[in-house]
Structures are given as C-alpha cells and as structure tokens.
Design a protein that fits this description.
Elements: H1 2-40, H2 42-50, H3 63-74, H4 85-92, H5 106-115, H6 129-134, H7 138-152, E1 163-168, E2 179-184, H8 187-206
Antiparallel strand pairs: 1-2
Keywords: Coiled coil
Organism: Parnassius apollo
Protein name: (apollo) hypothetical protein
Length: about 220
C-alpha cells in the first residue's frame, strides 16, 4: 500500500512538472507570436488583446433570415453624393507630380508573392500563396497578364468574385446583423493589388503626399 501511495505521489509530481513546462512553452510561444504580429500588424495585435477570438460554435442564424438581411444591404441601389471637400482636396493636389504608368515585371510578382502569407484563405480559385511561391515559372506569365489588365483597363470578373464568410461579433447569437462579413478574393488578384499598392505607396512617399503620422489607410 505504501509503495502504491509513493507511486501515485511520484506520478502527480511528474504531471505537475510537465504542466509547468507546457505553461512555460505556451507563454513563450504566445510572446513570440505577439512580437511578430506587432512588427507586421500592430492594429491586429491590439485588437486581439482587447477582443479575444470569438468561437464560431453554437446556434447560427436561420439561412433565409441571413439571406434576406444581407440582400437588403447589398441588392438595393445607392446614390452616393460627392462632398464639397473632394473639390478642396483635388485643388490642393493639383501640383503633385503625376504617377508614371506602371510597368509590371516578374520581379514585382516575386516580391509581392514573397511578402504574402503562405496559407491565408484563398478565394474561388482555391489557390494559396504557398503554391505561387513554388511555381516560379508562372511569375513571368503573371507579370505579362497583369500588364495586359492595366493596358486594357479591364479585369476578369473572376478577379473580383470572392467567397464571403460571416464572422460572429459576439458569443452565441442568432441575429444576422451581429455578424461581420469577410470576403476572400482570389490569390492572383491579391497579388496584383499588392504590386499596385507598393507602387502607389512608393509614389506617395517620394512626393511626400501622405503625412508621416498617417499609418495605414
């Protein structure tokens, strides 16, 4: 009986030691992830600290109610009015050097794909950036096709057709209005917009168009 008790105590001590090791590893891993996120996306880090991730389990809204709610927002025509401030901004920007026409090279594609996360959710094409990084023979073809898109000023409809996921804003809600839509666009389209964003940012920086305090858009 005494040996059994000693054995149980020994196992409890081992379990406690392993528990401490797991907690230390988890804390260290969390700090590492937060440090990396701070360097790449401070806004996302602060948002994750203020609002923990919401679980998607539990009751969901009725499908018909969800379709009716979002159709009322997306299917109704809206007439937008340009505010007078747009004319003021246009007059203030009249002296800025116009941006040169964009010429997309294979190196631009390589750099845009390199910066992209490997396994970020894709769109209808189901293609992850991981594969674009590996299929280097496609970079020259993509650069040529992207240039054709800019020259023709026309995008394939597939580029702007995405998969919309509804993310709950709170726990266990069946109200369709309490969900936030996230649309995943095709990876190739995101590569094109990444290239254009880099070129526009370079032009804004070189002409000092954006104030230094402006972080993000």
């Amino acid at each position: 009986m005494q040996k059994l008790t000693e054995r149980i105590d020994d196992l409890k001590q081992r379990i406690a030691a392993w528990g401490k090791r797991i907690r230390r590893y988890t804390e260290r891993s969390t700090r590492f992830s937060q440090n990396r996120l701070f360097q790449s996306d401070q806004k996302r880090l602060y948002k994750s600290l203020e609002r923990p991730m919401v679980s998607g389990t539990g009751p969901v809204p009725n499908q018909a109610d969800t379709v009716a709610f979002w159709r009322s927002l997306w299917s109704e025509p809206v007439n937008h009015k340009e505010g007078p401030w747009t004319e003021v901004v246009a007059s203030q920007c009249a002296g800025i050097t116009p941006m040169d026409p964009v010429t997309i090279t294979p190196d631009d594609v390589v750099e845009a794909v390199r910066r992209a996360p490997n396994w970020k959710s894709p769109g209808l094409d189901g293609l992850h950036h991981y594969w674009l990084k590996g299929f280097v023979v496609c970079h020259t073809v993509l650069a040529r096709q992207f240039q054709e898109v800019l020259n023709q000023k026309s995008l394939p409809s597939l580029f702007t057709t995405g998969i919309t996921h509804l993310v709950p804003k709170g726990q266990g809600t069946t109200d369709p209005s309490k969900y936030r839509p996230i649309t995943c666009l095709p990876t190739i389209y995101k590569t094109l917009t990444s290239i254009l964003s880099a070129r526009i940012t370079r032009h804004l920086d070189s002409n000092q168009v954006m104030p230094r305090a402006q972080n993000g858009c």
